[in-house]
Amino acid sequence: MPVSTYLVVALGAVAAGFVQGLSGFAFGLTALSIWAWVIDPQLAAVLAVSGAFTGQVIAAVSVRRGFEPGRLAPFILGGLAGIPLGVLLLPRLDADWFKMLLGLLLVVWCPTMLLARNLPRITAGGRLADAAVGLGGGMMGGLGGFTGVLPTLWCTLRRYERDVQRSVIQNFNLAMLSVTLATYLAAGLVTRATLPMLAVILPAMLVPTLLGTRIYLGIGEVAFRRLVLGLLTVSGLALVSASAPRLLQRAGRPISTAFVGEHPVDSAGR
């Protein structure tokens, strides 16, 4: 590969590492918005999962405030059950409509939450509801790699304190990424051709991830809530942009497709 490709990949890792260190999620979303134009989607998926997993490990070591195993457990148990369900549903589900409807929900609901100061806090459901959200997050991971979207939105609706929300999202994603990475290794997707790119990504993201975690420690509750809702809105836009070209093609309209229309969003993502 040309040197310019490695430079673009390194730039994506720097940006994604910083965003993940700051928010606790969204490595794949950020990286793929840059990598999509220069590398193969399968390679991008492997790199995104590997980078996101590494970033979550770094962030988990750097930011350990708010960790409550009892609160986290229902999310992870539900998520572990949801991943195989998502994989089983994938051949039977219309993935394009799924991404479109989820993306529209995020694009409408998250800015509404951002602008409305006095929306009611959801307190019903307890751990069973948390497990159901984890199940949904795991299923979405099996369907398209969006493990963190539902738990992040749910924690925001629960109005968890900043550190508690960060801990739930961060450790949930870490567990789901561990399963995904193990699946990739077992399937032989991490090949020798992947190693040079990994040798670029992992060092490039180290300092930005640590910088993001340091900035996170200095921001307040309101700023963190705005950051999370903003990133969820961007996630929604990414889902809509990935599914809209395919849906238009199926409707018979001649359009020019970009990468996000030609290839499915990777299985990493945040």
From TrEMBL:
Xref: PANTHER family: MEMBRANE TRANSPORTER PROTEIN (PTHR30269:SF37), TRANSMEMBRANE PROTEIN YFCA (PTHR30269)
Localisation per UniProt entry: Cell membrane
One family name in Pfam for this protein: TauE
Membrane-spanning segments: 7-37, 43-63, 72-91, 97-116, 128-154, 174-191, 198-217, 223-244
Family: Belongs to the 4-toluene sulfonate uptake permease (TSUP) (TC 2.A.102) family.
Protein name (Swiss-Prot/TrEMBL): Probable membrane transporter protein
Native source organism of the sequence: Methylobacterium radiotolerans
Keyword entries, A-Z: Cell membrane, Membrane, Transmembrane, Transmembrane helix, Transport
Membrane topology value: Multi-pass membrane protein
